Input
Amino acid sequence: MKILAIDDQKLILLSVEKRLSELGYEVKTANSIETGIRLFDSFKPDLVLLDMNMPEMCGTELVSCTGTEVVKYIRVFMRNDTPILVMSGNTDEALIMKNFDLGVNDYMKKPVSLDEMAARIKRIIGATENKAGTTSTISDTRMLQKNCVGVVIPCYNEETRLSSEEFKNFAHKNLGYHLCFVNDGSTDNTMAVLQKLQKENPSNISIYNCEQNGGKAEAVRQGILHLVKDEQFDYIGFLDADLSTDFRDFDDLVKTIEQSDFKIVSGSRISRMGANITKESARKVISMTINFIIQTILGMPFKDTQCGAKVMDREVASKMFNKKFVTKWLFDVELFMRMKKYFGKTEVKSMICEQPLKRWIHADGSKLSMKDSVKIVGQLAQIAVHYR
Output
């Protein structure tokens, strides 16, 4: 049996194609409406698996389109009754009902597991048989996310701190995430560790290699500009390699930006009831002092600009990271200053959300020493002058 999967996000298509092929279906994929319609005519599938949000190029601009165009082509123009199963993060009830009226057979809302997808396909067109004449019973509970998220992870001499198993497990289970490790001119075996990690998850993990160490700010900037070129990513963020902020909290940041109008959601290491926030006492005092200076410079009440976990709209990422930062470590402050200068102080307050983390632990081996903390005050003055 033949299945045509149409989705603009390659990460999703790769996972869908692999899973359905494992189950014995013959699969072809398309990442645009035009290609999908062309393949429908030539491939003659037994089922069409379709996403709703399908932005298309019009000249040099991306315009918003929906998979409804494919449904109309099949049902109205071709008068064809091939089963159509929609799998989308679009939860607009009017759009859903419109597609049911046009004749879609089922509508799955992302996030959805590969198992549920397979079960719904089986219900509509039946299961395939392997060479032994039996159907596959292997389960796959991995999740297809609502949106595709690119995550930049800067690395400088992280050989002993990279938690490979955690990264590998997250990339394997969460199919809408892509982890981009930026090797910032490491002099240890960080690159070898990253290459091993990528080999085990080639579709969800990539490496951007910087020949020379340029500091965290430039490493993150280069990684973000690299991911921005890939149109499949709805959101782009960054996370520290030591996972002092873990993936559960980062996923919560993503859920917040998906469900709101915020353009940036930033983790905040503010202690709150039930949260596991651990810092060295001296580091905590210095951090509080620096945060007070930062709030004064920004003129906005953000309590923790320096948390190494942030996620943002891809358009904002493209605009805010297009130029080099003035400092190597305080680019988070510069990011907020750029947002303030570009959008205005009043507007930017409604665009940035600080979300308290449930867990955060200062990891041993931090690249930022006490001596560096003293230098920060001078760098903050430099930022204040540069962005005034």
About this structure: The longest strand covers residues 177-184.
